[in-house]
Amino acid sequence: MLTVSETAALLRTFDNVLILTHVRPDGDTVGCAAALCAGLRALGKTAYLLPNPELTDTSAPYFLPYAAPEDFTPDRVVSTDIATPSLFPENAKPYLERVDLAIDHHPSFEHFGKANIVRPEAAACGELMYDILAHLGPITAEIALPLYVAVSTDTGCFAYGNVTPQTHAVAAALMRTGIDYQTVNKVFFRTKSRKRMQLEAAMLSGCEFYDGGRVALLTVPISLMERLEASETDAEDLSALGPQIQGVDCAITLRELRPDVWKMSLRTGSRVNATAAAALLGGGGHAAAAGCTVEAPLEDAKRRILEAVAQVAPDFSAT
């Protein structure tokens, strides 16, 4: 396992770099990838991001300036905020055996790179990326802006329980570069499309409660997305809705990706270890935020995730 200084030294030897992001890219993977690309270019390196077919309109402005042309052939490959090869987008799978460096912060990280660095205690991969890039050179505004996206989005604008004093210290350092963090906060945390609000209303109206009201289960079937004509941007980070319900310390969001294929996102408090529950179904993540994918009819998928939660929460009540 590499240290930060060793990672920076290794990156100095790289050139013609392709940077990978995970499926259904969030702000952390996009922000880390874009910041790393900017940092490498500041060193005179050639670096690009592999286009991600599931990129949303919200994060696209931070990604697209660094997107690789079709004819780019990399000499080195780096992954950012990817815990497992199963999270590689389809167009990234040819690079499964070619990851020269994997940078991550998930406890479930699978060490699939030729070289690896992970910081499970970091609230966002962006915190680790900040330290790496600070070893490479000055953190410019161009680097700081996507890093702020990374750190702020993975912490719910610094509201989640994974936030530490170091998280705020990194955010403060990024803000001091003069970036327009106000726009980031407005776009990611204080703006919702009408279709997004309709999605949330439908999810809440169909929400099911278990375990004495402590567990909330929300579903987003394909039929709902089609009925509302909602886009992926409208559906971004829907898993943040359930934890806002008073009395809920375990929110489960089931999003149908394909017929009877459900992506399950868990957001939990200290009583339920989200990673442990997700791992029972082949997934992983953090203690308070994890996920997995299950192929089954909806009622069976619900049963399986509730059984997994019950296994890791000894005081789980069936009522």
Describe the SSE topology.
Blueprint: H1 4-12, E1 17-20, H2 27-42, E2 47-49, H3 60-63, E3 76-80, E4 101-104, E5 116-118, H4 125-136, H5 141-154, H6 165-175, H7 181-189, H8 194-205, E6 208-210, E7 215-220, H9 222-228, E8 250-258, E9 261-268, H10 274-279, E10 284-285, E11 289-295, H11 298-312
Parallel strand pairs: 1-2, 1-3, 3-4, 4-5, 7-8
Antiparallel strand pairs: 6-7, 8-9, 9-11, 10-11
Helix pairs in contact: 1-4, 2-4, 2-5, 4-5, 5-6, 5-7
Q: Looking across the biggest beta sheet, what order are the strands in?
A: 6-7-8-9-11-10
Instruction: Name the poorly predicted regions.
Output: none
- Rg, alpha carbons: 19 Å
Strand composition percent: 15-25%
- Summarize model confidence as the mean pLDDT: 97
Structure description:
There is one protein chain. The chain is an alpha/beta fold and 319 residues long. Helix content is 36%, strand content 17%. A hairpin with a 2-residue loop joins strand 8 and strand 9. Helix 5 (141-154) runs antiparallel to helix 6 and helix 5 (141-154) runs parallel beside helix 7 (181-189). The protein is globular.
Summarize the structure.
The protein is of the alpha/beta class.
Give short descriptive properties of this protein:
319 residues, alpha/beta, six-stranded mixed β-sheet, five-stranded parallel β-sheet, 11 strands, 36% helix, 17% strand, globular
